[in-house]
Amino acid sequence: MEQSLPIWLIPTLTLVGGVIIGLILARVLQRTSPAQTQRELRELQERFDDYQSEVVTHFNTTASLVKKLNKNYQAVQEHLATGADCLALDETSRESLLAALVGEPQPQERISARQEAEDSSHENLEPPRDYVPKAEGEPGTLSEDYSVKR
Questions:
Q1: Residue 113, pLDDT score
Q2: Helix axis angle, 4-87 relative to 91-102, nearest 10°?
Q3: Residue 88 class from Cβ within 10 Å (0-12 exposed, 13-18 middle, 19+ buried)?
Q4: Helix then strand then coil, % of the chain, to nearest 5
């Protein structure tokens, strides 16, 4: 009996020691893991905040550039209008220059475009056909002699 005690005692003590060492390692590793996770979370949050600030900066810059572009466009329009007023010799040329500046068709162009549209709409008043027209005396398409060459 005395010999059987050390045979069971050594594996039991080894098992208990392994469990204790496992618990200690689990506690140590568990303490370091949340700290590392918290640090990674902070780094991700900082990167996200930097990205958001870059997006806001980008859109603010874009808005200011578009505003500047609109002001420059208005300045060019005013300059051209002033030039048309000062440099045009008569009222007709002044009106045509201002109309071209705004992008409106000139009066002669409007009249000719309207006439062309009316002419083209009156040319073909005949509805489309779904048959082949035939001349007088020719056989129709349902005739037995249609397209038979002799």
A1: 62
A2: 170
A3: middle
A4: 75, 0, 25
Q: Assess contact for 102 and 81: CB atoms under 8 A.
A: no
| Among candidate residues 44, 65, 64, 62, the one with its CA nearest the CA of residue 54 | 62
CA distances from 8 to 4, 17, 64 (A): 7, 14, 83
Give 10-residue mean pLDDT values along the chain (150 residues): 70 91 84 76 95 96 95 90 79 78 60 65 68 76 72
What's at 99, amino acid-wise?
Answer: A
Using an 8 Å Cβ cutoff, are 106 and 99 in contact? yes
Distance CA 35, CA 39 (A): 6
What's the pTM value of the predicted model, to 2 decimals?
0.41
Residue with structure tokens 């071209």? 100
Tokens of 129: 């056909």
Instruction: Supply the pLDDT for residue 20.
Output: 94
Q: Nearest-CA neighbor of 110 among 98, 125, 120, 99?
A: 99
What is the C-alpha separation between 107 and 92, in angstroms, rounded?
A: 10
DSSP structure class, residue 131: S
- Residue 118 is predicted with a pLDDT of 66
